[in-house]
Design a protein that fits this description.
The chain is an alpha+beta fold. The chain is 58% helix and 10% strand.
Length: 476
Amino acid sequence: MAVFLANKRRFVVHLRPEDIAEELHADGGEAVTQAQVDEALKKLDEWDNLRADPDTGRVTTVEDFYRARFLYQLSREGEAAERALELFDRELGRRGELQAVALEDIRVRLHALTGMDGEQDPAVVHNLLLEIMSRLDSLAANASAFMGGLQRTIDLQDVEEEAFLAYKDRLIAYLERFVSELVVKAFDIADMIRRLTHVDDLLRLAAEREAADVAPGEEDRPGEAAAAKLAEWRDRWSGLRSWFVGDRTHPCQAELLRMRTRQAIPDLLATISVLQERRSGRSDRSADFRTLARWFAQSPTEADAHRLWRAAFGLTSARHLTVEAEEDDSVTSTTSWLDAPQAEISVRLRATGHYAKRGAPRKVVDRSAEREELAAFVAAEREQTELARKRLATGRPTPLSAFPELDPVEFRLFLRLLGEALALGPGEVTTRTADGALEIRLRPRDGWAEIRTEEGVLRGPDHELTIIDRVAGAHG
């Protein structure tokens, strides 16, 4: 089957049995006879992998005509199966790569499209669009395969440490080069995509050119093929646009790839540090606990496990009890209970668990003034916070650029609420405070905002902020 597939790539359709045997011998594999080849071809014909046609091209006599001679070619089923197996093997063995060259190819072809003025040649437009989509498909597939393999490398799965440490510098340089190329080329590509105003006309030219070769069906209506092809090209162009053009709410795939690639560099450095620590024999707490757990499991008796516990953690009987015995200078805090002299314990302590020291009790300090002062401070702070909550929690969507000047209490509450919302990530988010009293909704907007306070001005990207007081709503 591999012989048939290789010949089809050279545009050779029909093969005779002796041609196949000759190629198998030239391939350097195991020696096969002509009879074995004939038998294998018959089986493949029975299984519908091949199609056998009578070979009448070399018939010179009646005996030759009645002798079974066949020309073999791949059937549709056989070719589909072989190509599927070939694709399966190729995908399993593919390493993946970050194709900076593909970015340049896409940029050049988009530049050619943007430079077309007046009458466009359908063949040129069609070929440019096909090449753009082909390069994008290759770029996306290879980037996905490469990043998946890189993540397995970072996680130290199926990787040889010596080989990884040997090529780590080249890998990091490779990532840095791709990130620099991606930043420049993706910006140019996105700019050209935005400047293409006649996209639908170009897609319609490509669709009509493809539809001209579609064989008519019995139930097809005029124009259906062109409409279907146009819908396919619009989907492809939408995918190209989403790959390079995004906004703050929905980042493009190129931006996500850039962020992931940049993050991979410190992750790789952290992995290298872990490997270096392993090679230097440095131990960490998790490894120590795993070793200790193994020792506990291997302890022959329970008494040995207890001795191991005391040796590992040093948790023995406490020596901080207050006793009435005379102090002995030879007994220190590190002396074991086994070696120390006997300590006399008060009967009251043993019976009640309490021990009353001799002498008058200590006087109780009156803290009422401090408590009143603290209560007044807390009440004033609570009142200021409630006023700030009532002013901010209006329940109406308000752009940050429309916020009035905030006093220090309002500004602290505002920063806390804004920080809780921004911590959830980019895009439109909804969250609540820890006590559930306030609900925050945040949605990005275009432009920048300035919020003035007594201590200065806070500048940042503009958002639409909605703060809802759920406690007041529940009481209402």
